[in-house]
Amino acid sequence: MTKPRVLISDKMDPNAARIFEEKGCDVDVITGETPEQLIARIGEYDGLAIRSSTKVTKAILDAATNLKVIGRAGIGVDNVDIPYASGKGVVVMNTPFGNSITTAEHAIALMFALARQIPEANAQTQAGLWPKNGFMGVEVTGKTLGLIGAGNIGSIVASRALGLKMKVVAYDPFLTPERAIEMGVEKADLDTLLAKADFITLHTPLTSETKNILSRENLGKTKKGVRIINCARGGLIDEAALKDLMDAGHIAGAALDVFETEPAKESPLFGTPNFICTPHLGASTTEAQVNVALQVAEQMAEFLTTGGVTNALNMPSLSAEEAPKLKPYMALAERLGSLVGQLAHDNLTKIAIEVEGAAAQLNQKPITGAVLAGLMKQYSQTVNMVNAPFLAKERGLDVREVRHDREGIYHTMVRVTVGTAQGDRSVAGTLFGNGDPRLVEIFGIGIEADLAGDMLYIVNTDAPGFIGSIGTLLGKAGINIGTFHLGRREAGGEAVLLLSVDSPVTEAVLAEARTVPGVRTVRALKFS
Ligand SMILES: NC(=O)C1=CN([C@@H]2O[C@H](COP(=O)(O)OP(=O)(O)OC[C@H]3O[C@@H](n4cnc5c(N)ncnc54)[C@H](O)[C@@H]3O)[C@@H](O)[C@H]2O)C=CC1
Ligand SMILES: O=C(O)CCC(=O)C(=O)O
Q: Which residues form a coiled coil (predicted)?
């Protein structure tokens, strides 16, 4: 049997190559190539091991005719086009915990560097200036740290900050009150955090919801003299606004490990007093790099040589026997979870996953895992079926599995009900004979729809002419409708419109749709 071939295309601890070889793979380490060079080479490989420099684009995936697995030695996978990789049947794995402590420590290091202006004091001292009176720092003891994102890294930062006798205020829509108490932090909304924090540190993935979370407007809501740290992803902060507010003296300091454009070889922020930065070094310690290199190589080699799947972001972990039966259910479950996650995600306290008919004869755990992964994908890049139940538990989400013996109107059905501040909200779906997943009910309204790609969700008051108005509005915006699904509680009552569209619905179109008479709710949805 020919050995699987793996390419390591980013600088990685040598342990990775050693493990690949020990586990029966041929490995090449070729770093620093241009995209064109990688495109020319990638067709030879079964596996691609990367960190953050290699951008796995559609063009690279198109050229990767043998590729079976991409392994990210690290957490963030925003440099991989996961939907496209999934479409090509390429498994994408990461190492969700290997560099968390190291990155949290970098955030704390930057916080101290800001509080005591260490980089500038060091530079001036070594320049022979002995600037004893030029620097007046601040203590962190007793200060409030605003934590945006309280996942793996955020919670480690919180524990370190509490050890430094700081108060920690956390904003994370997925943080339950119970988990906040367990972490010893105060759960707050974003505005409260912005108003209270002396230091703000970001630990979210970059998603459509977190992009620009520290926008010009939000930066303007911060306390005068705030110091800001970003060791998560560029794009979370409006860099131009940060510069303006630092120049205006409102923001006392900022430390960025990550930039909107990387490598950041120039930036208006460079040279700004009390601005410090590092070149995406959050994960750069010997310990973290050994951890992630060993883990990624173990996982990828196992997949390539035995088919075992660990920490995949786009594929469930399954035994060979269960896989074919459960596969269509996973797709259905993931989409139902994603739907409730997109429509009813704030302050979720509980979730129930019910199966009936043919679904009740199967192992329910993978179905539950897929629902939770779909739900939490709105908040975390690293969630997958394997770690979703664990993360849900850690965050205090009460997960209930119910198996009904009764026969319902569908031969098989999965129902997902979440507890929200507005009460319980439930969606349900079935499988067609060919295994295609279908939504059959949304928040108590019967509807039949395929959940795929870009969609538009509208709740309205049922009235003649409404559908025409929405069709015209989308047509004017050049958005082509793929499929059209309708449901209503009763004639003239609450109705739901679910459209699949050939291009994403822009904010401007959503805003215009909200002005159409009879509209109650409008949301753009996205499914993988
Ligand atoms: N600078 C570096 O070298 C490194 C950066 N990172 C980055 O750090 C980030 C966090 O990583 P982890 O803690 O492991 O991820 P995680 O998935 O454990 O935690 C992310 C947290 O963000 C929260 N979140 C999602 N949307 C939010 C929103 N709109 N507002 C507030 N919170 C929101 C989630 O609920 C979750 O608790 C990722 O972007 C990762 O790529 C990770 C390692 C190294
Ligand atoms: O590999 C690196 O140095 C970057 C790590 C990172 O950003 C991540 O794991 O998300």
A: none
